[in-house]
Amino acid sequence: MSEYETIQYALRDNVALLTLNRPERRNAMNAELNRDLLAGFERAAGDDQVRAVLVTGAGRGFCAGADLTLFQNQPSGEQVYEMIISSYQPMMQIVISMKKPVIAAINGVAAGAGASLALACDLRVMAHDASILMAFSNIALVPDAGATWLLTQLVGYSRAYEIAIEGNRIPAERCLEIGLTNKIVPAEQLMTISLAWARKLAERPTLALSLTKKAMRYAQLHDLAATIEYEAQLQKQTVGSQDFMEGVMAFIQKRDPQFKGK
Ligand code: T3D
Questions:
Q1: Is residue 134 part of a domain?
Q2: pLDDT at 2
Q3: Which of 36, 42, 54, 77 could be 7's S-S partner, Cβ–Cβ 3.0 to 4.6 Å?
Q4: pTM strictly above 0.90
Q5: pLDDT over 90 for what percent of the chain?
Q6: Number of structural domains, the chain?
């Protein structure tokens, strides 16, 4: 029996695997799933054993965004605002800020806030038959859960606007062409390939990977001079790490480095 109602959490070597688990609703997000997913991300972020995180969906979809059955009785603007700020904001924020790479293994459609979740991840692997759908405008909503920021960062304003207002499914091939995914793989190999990638990253120097993420997220919001200064600050931490010395010594001794993540 899982300790969460709506996600599965597993540790595979140094990789935390989070599986959204409401397959009968294409893993649509309700209050329980939002609560469980945030708890899962917090657990992975706080566990030193975890050096990479993989998130996927059970069944045929990655995540269909907000559970629309909750909106049958029209919610108030204040209720929706509260939901976004209390659930989606911390969820996207922890993915973006946690000190380990987060990979989305996109097994089916990632729609609405589910697309935001996929785009907030640092890396994406898509099954060849998976897709991304900015579903918001199809139900007359503005993209939320960070979708406007994430999409414009990845594909630029004009293309992002087109995607958001047309509300079409973007197939995996097109996602690869425009930079919305890092890889496409055969559906039956999605988890094997994604887990292998996560395991490989988990063997790399975790502090350097984490600070690279931090520097690149900083660079998205700052100019070159400020970013160079920020990188210099972060480098003070990496040069003091065991892994830095291991990397240097392994090079000098002509052997493979064994990074400990410290
Ligand atoms: O307060 C707030 O949270 C506001 C913020 C909102 C953020 C958002 O995310 S808004 C966007 C919400 N999401 C959508 O609009 C997507 C709606 N779903 C779809 O467009 C399609 O279902 C999919 C493209 C995701 C999947 O299509 P397909 O053909 O693979 O599956 P399907 O047959 O449409 O769905 C399978 C079942 O899942 C079906 O139930 P049934 O008929 O078998 O009993 C369907 O109703 C259910 N389902 C799919 N998406 C949702 C859902 N149930 C509830 N909420 C959903 N979002």
A1: yes
A2: 73
A3: 36
A4: yes
A5: 97
A6: 2
